[in-house]
Amino acid sequence: MATATLSESNSSAPSVGGPLLGDAEFQFMRDFVYQHCGISLGEQKRQLVQGRLLRRLRALGLRDFAAYCELLRREPEGELGELASVISTNVTSFFREMHHYDLLINELLPRWLEEKKHGGRLRIWSAGCSTGEEPYALAMVLAEALERTKSTVDARILATDLSPQALETARAGTYPLERMGGVSEARRNRWFLRGEGSYEGWACVHPRLRELVTIQPLNLLHEWPMRGPFDAIFCRNVVIYFDKPTKQRLFERYAGLVEQGGYLFLGHSESMYGLSDSFELVGRTVYRKRAS
Questions:
Q1: Where are the domains of the chain?
Q2: Which positions fall inside the CheR-type methyltransferase domain (predicted)?
Q3: Is 52 an active-site residue?
């Protein structure tokens, strides 16, 4: 029986699922992803990357991974969002980590609305908004606070992500009912329009929530067009993909955009310990910007 080995020049060798990802192509992708996304791909991720990118190769009509790498060299920005969608996992839900929303509802939003009632602006950034559940959940509690206090404060939520597919879902604002387990019955009735006919089993966010949320593409490692300041930044389950230097740079950039005394919210498995002196821990993965 003949045997074959995978070498740098053997990236197009046939396999049951399609072409193989060779050493040279995988190393190029590792360097490319780290440079443009800040994500470190270990050797153990090779099979995962190969499997997920095969669908992308077929969609683009490319023969092998060498051709895909050439596309990245030729049009890095044009394909970056699609590549990021492939290698990252967009796992999110409405009102995930409810203690963050409780803090907003019970303490932060009432305080901010009172402080800004004579002309201030309230701004929250959902950085890494994925398919939109997080910013729309934020919009629900914000809209409720505005109604409850009869506030006319200029309040907005910015939602950004690198993935074109995730942003498309977020802009559509339409979700299957089974994805809405974290939304109470009262909020479902208040903030969602239930689908009928061919849209049976789906729900669309209320126009009021769309008014509060601006959705834009953004690479966190590139230039940021917004200048802030933000009262709070939600960057949850995003920095788990980054190495320490990338996290440090990102946290300092956040510090430059957060109001004095403003807040940064991280995911349940994330921490700023030893990474930034600009914030202090004040709750479960809740950080407040220190006084300068």
A1: 23-87, 98-289
A2: 21-292
A3: yes
Q: Cβ contacts of residue 108 below 8 Å, gap of 6+? A: 231, 232, 263
> What is the C-alpha separation between 202 and 174, in angstroms, rounded?
7
Pairwise CA distance, residues 93 & 179, whole Å? 7
Q: Supply the pTM of this predicted model.
A: 0.84
In the residue annotation, 161 being an active-site residue is answered as yes
Mean pLDDT for back-to-back runs of 10 residues, the chain (292 residues): 29 55 93 86 87 91 94 89 77 92 98 94 96 97 97 97 91 94 95 91 96 96 92 93 90 96 95 94 96 81
- Catalytically annotated residue among 23, 52, 96, 210: 52
Catalytic pick among 123, 161, 187, 231: 161
CATH architecture of the domain 98-289 equals: 3-Layer(aba) Sandwich (3.40)
Amino acid symbol at 71: L
**CATH 1.10.155.10 correct for 23-87:** yes
CB atoms within 10 A of CB 166: 23
Q: What angle do CA 241, 217, 44 make, to 5 degrees?
A: 25
